[in-house]
Every structure is written in C-alpha cells, then in structure tokens.
Design goal:
Elements (H helix, E strand, L loop, with lengths): L4 H7 L11 E5 L2 E4 L4 E4 L2 H4 L8 H11 L12 H13 L4 E5 L2 H20 L5 E5 L8 H6 L3 H4 L9 E4 L4 H7 L4 E6 L13 H13 L3 E5 L23 E4 L10 E5 L1 H4 L15 H14 L2 H25 L2 E7 L2 E6 L7 H10 L2 E2 L1 E2 L4 E4 L7 H21 L1
Parallel strand pairs: 3-13, 5-6, 5-7, 7-8, 8-9
Antiparallel strand pairs: 1-2, 2-3, 4-10, 9-10, 11-12, 12-15, 14-15
C-alpha cells in the first residue's frame, strides 16, 4: 500500500488540512519524513512532546508496562494509575485525581463537577459558567461552547446554556458578569490558542477574589501550560493564585494520550459513584508512560532549564527581528512562546509557519497573527540555535515574497 497525502484525502474525514509532509520517525527534537528530509521540531505536537520524540524513559516505561497489563475496566484499580495520582497530589494543591484520555475530557469532567458541586450545595439557580473570549477548552460540545471562539461551536444546533464570556484581562467586565448565580469560572492561566496571552497580576488575583466572594469555583485549564511548559510544574504555581480545580493533559503523557482533573477532597466528593466515568481513563499503559514523563520533568534541572531556554529563544528572536522587522513582540512564558506579526503582515502567521516547513522547521500558529513555538522542554541549545537559523530563512522567504 502506498501511503501518501492523496490517500489521506481519500480515506479521512476532511476536518483537517494537514501538510504534505508525513513524518515517519523522530528522535529528540528531530523528525524525518517519508523522503528522509530532516526537521527540527518547535511544534511539539502542539505542546505535547515535552521530552521530544522517543525519549528513553518513555520508551522504556511503555515497553515494560506493555508486557504486564494493557487495560482493565474501572471496576478495578491498577498500580500505574494509583502511583501517578499520588505523585500529582503530592506535587500540587490537589487531594484527588480523575483520569481521562484528553484535555477536552478532563475539562468536561471539571465542568460537570462544578455544576454538580453548585447544585448540591446551593441549588439549581447557581449554574452560570463564565469563560473568556478566545479561550480554548476542547472540542466536546460542552467544552467548545465554554471556549470563547464561536467559530468552533456554531453550526451544531442548540448549545449548552448559561455560559457567558468576557475579555481576558478585563477585570471590570468580569466583575460585572459574575454573581451569586455563578457556579464556576474557567480560564487558561496563559491563553494558548487565543494568541499566547499572559494574565496580568491584577486580573488573575482579582478573578480569584471575586470567585471567593461569590462562592464560585475557579477552574484552571492547564492542558497546554501544565507539566513544566512555563518553567513551573503547573503555571498556577508562578501566579500566587490557587485554583479549585485544575485540568492537565498534552505534556502529561509526553505523547501518549492521557488527561487528568485535579481537585480537593471537599469538591471531589460530589462526583459520587456512577456520576461520571471513562472506559480508558486511568489506562495502565497511559499512566505508566505519564509517570515516567512526570518524573523526568518534575526536577529542578528540567524546570530551571525551561527558563534558560526561553532566554535563548528570546535573544535569537530579537536578533532576527532587528534585521527583518516583521514582528511586534514575542509573548508567552517558558517554552510556550508566540511571535506576534507586525501590522503589514496581519493575518499571515500561517505564511511563516509554511515557510518554516520549507526550511526544515516545524512551528505552529496561535490564531492568524501569532507564530507559536512549543518545543521539547529538554531541547538542546544547539537545536534551538539551528532551529532559529532555519526560522530566519523562513522569515526571509516570506519577506522576499512580498
């Protein structure tokens, strides 16, 4: 069988429009395609491959667990899930963990739990959920409605109700929206898909205070920012604000699908037996790999190294932009970074991403005006330098095409 981009179009539902490049193997921060062309990976599978490709710790964990136990239903517990949950609890504010398969499923569980918590404690009137424009929380109908991008949720019929949005970092608008009828507020502690937007201290602390005032649960969606991405194990740990519920996925499995919801005992008790579940949630294979990823990332060497690598990215980006003047700034924190295009390149972030592929670099976009980098947390300095040299060639390609 000849496997190529044309076969993709023939057999796959057309909801994706992937590149013509089909990767076939990876090692560290390098990827090779079917023609054996080599790329440096600054995309990380959208902030998933926190340890790059085929990291020995993850490969070994998968091999060992694959010869022990692949799956049991949640009518039984399993050792890898219990070990991973214990490590997540010990490293965070949380007391309890619920495992799922993805960030969307973790967010779905968080939202259902928040509604059930409010119903049990306050009554049916307390059901409003507040989220933020340009947020992204997944593709289930509930999470895509909570995410503040109507283009993703329109066209599927009536949406889940009592969900309201306001602008990120607009504390006054948020204060006008929240009330004693609000059961939960969901936000990203650094907006990813929405353009790599960091919260102001006033905003994030103000949201926490208003949630406390109105007895609303604060949910942090750390699907993209979690597991070391910002240089903290979880981004909340660098914000002096603690959520009531936290969701994590993407980097948690280092490339193996897994998600988790973390919360306190008092809140968790409202998901009684039978109220929620997942066939594959807490799968032994997934949890064994995630445990290895978590153990590798949750060290001073890796977390401090993220900040050091961020500084190098910013230095090299500034050198490129001083020459070509095509970006306004680099936003973000740690190794979740966004290069914001200048006025004359509005709407053309994708052009830079495609030119990067032409020059042997895998990058991302975050909306129409931001080129996003989310590489391995352990990417070597030499690969950062080489990748940014290729990015400079991509920038020159776009500039010369104008």
């Amino acid at each position: 069988m000849t496997v190529n981009r044309e076969l993709f179009d023939e057999v796959m539902v057309p909801n994706y429009a992937p590149s013509a490049v089909i990767p076939v193997r990876g090692e560290g921060s390098h990827v090779w395609d079917q023609a054996d062309n080599e790329y440096i990976d600054f995309a990380g599978g959208i902030a998933v491959n926190c340890l790059g490709h085929c990291h020995p710790a993850l490969v070994n964990a998968l091999k060992v667990q694959s010869e022990k136990l692949w799956h049991v239903a949640n009518v039984m517990a399993n050792e890898p899930a219990i070990r991973l949950a214990k490590k997540l609890v010990d490293a965070t504010f949380a007391d309890k963990v619920y495992f799922a398969n993805s960030g969307a499923e973790a967010n779905e569980a968080a939202l259902k739990l928040a509604r059930r918590f409010a119903l049990d404690n306050y009554g049916e009137h307390k059901s409003q959920i507040i989220a933020f424009n340009q947020g992204f929380h997944g593709r289930t109908f509930f999470t895509v409605t909570v995410g503040g991008q109507a283009a993703y949720s329109d066209g599927f019929g009536p949406k889940p109700g009592n969900i309201d949005h306001c602008n990120y970092n607009d504390l006054a608008a948020f204060e006008a929206l929240i009330s004693d009828n609000t059961c939960a507020v969901m936000l990203e502690p650094l907006q990813g898909e929405g353009g790599i937007i960091s919260p102001t201290v006033e905003f994030i602390q103000g949201v926490r205070a208003l949630c406390d005032k109105h007895n609303a649960l604060l949910i942090f969606d750390e699907v993209q920012t979690g597991v070391g991405r910002t240089g903290h194990l979880y981004a909340y740990q660098g914000l002096a604000v603690t959520p009531d519920i936290l969701t994590t996925a993407k980097a948690l499995g280092g490339g193996f699908p897994i998600g988790a919801m973390l919360t306190t005992t008092d809140i968790a008790k409202h998901l009684k037996v039978g109220t929620h579940g997942s066939t594959y949630g807490g799968n032994p294979l997934a949890c064994a790999v995630a445990e290895a990823a978590f153990d590798t990332v949750n060290t001073p060497e890796v977390l401090n190294g993220v900040k050091e690598k961020e500084a190098l990215f910013r230095q090299l980006f500034t050198q490129i932009n001083d020459k070509y003047h095509v970006f306004k700034e680099m936003r973000g924190e740690g190794l979740l970074l966004g290069a914001v295009v200048a006025e004359q390149y509005q709407g053309k972030a994708r052009d830079f991403m495609l030119a990067s592929i032409d020059n042997g670099l895998m990058a991302l976009v975050a909306g129409a005006n931001v080129v996003r980098f989310a590489p391995s947390l352990v990417i070597p300095e030499a690969d950062i330098r080489e990748g940014m040299a290729r990015f400079e060639k991509a920038v020159a390609q776009v500039v010369n095409a104008q």
